[in-house]
């Protein structure tokens, strides 16, 4: 897989260097050297983590879905913590549109007071 950014009219995807982690309620649930940054016109950049680098045992898929005309249909996940679930905090495009196929098998996370994404 090359390091060249993938670009569409509205979206750019690039591989991030270094190691990235996600903490949910203080616990590390993912660490990767394969993070992708998706930049979509009109939105803040979003970091996508490879599913294989996420402790998926702590995530439960929910019934929530959404549709993006540029990326496709998204499925949502809650993170189960010892203090209860963090509802619909992660999403994935299981069958993304061809132009953004690189985000397949990746999840992104909403940042809030219980979710931290950082380069380590």
Automatic annotation (TrEMBL):
Sequence ranges assigned to domain DUF427 in this UniProt record: 21-110
Ranges in coiled-coil conformation: none
Classification via InterPro entries: DUF427 (IPR007361), DUF427_sf (IPR038694)
Signal sequence extent: none
Database matches in Pfam families: NTP_transf_9 (PF04248)
Identification of the protein by name: DUF427 domain-containing protein
Record organism: Planktomarina temperata RCA23
């Amino acid at each position: 897989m090359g390091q060249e950014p993938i670009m569409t009219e509205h979206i750019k995807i690039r591989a991030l260097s270094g190691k990235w982690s996600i903490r949910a309620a203080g616990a590390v649930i993912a660490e990767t050297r394969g993070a992708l940054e998706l930049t979509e016109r009109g939105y803040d950049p979003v970091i996508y983590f490879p599913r294989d680098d996420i402790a998926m045992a702590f995530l439960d898929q929910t019934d929530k879905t959404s549709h993006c005309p540029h990326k496709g249909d998204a499925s949502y996940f809650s993170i189960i913590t010892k203090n209860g679930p963090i509802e619909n905090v992660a999403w994935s495009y299981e069958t993304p549109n061809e132009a953004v196929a690189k985000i397949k098998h990746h999840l992104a996370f909403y940042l809030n007071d219980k979710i931290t994404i950082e380069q380590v």
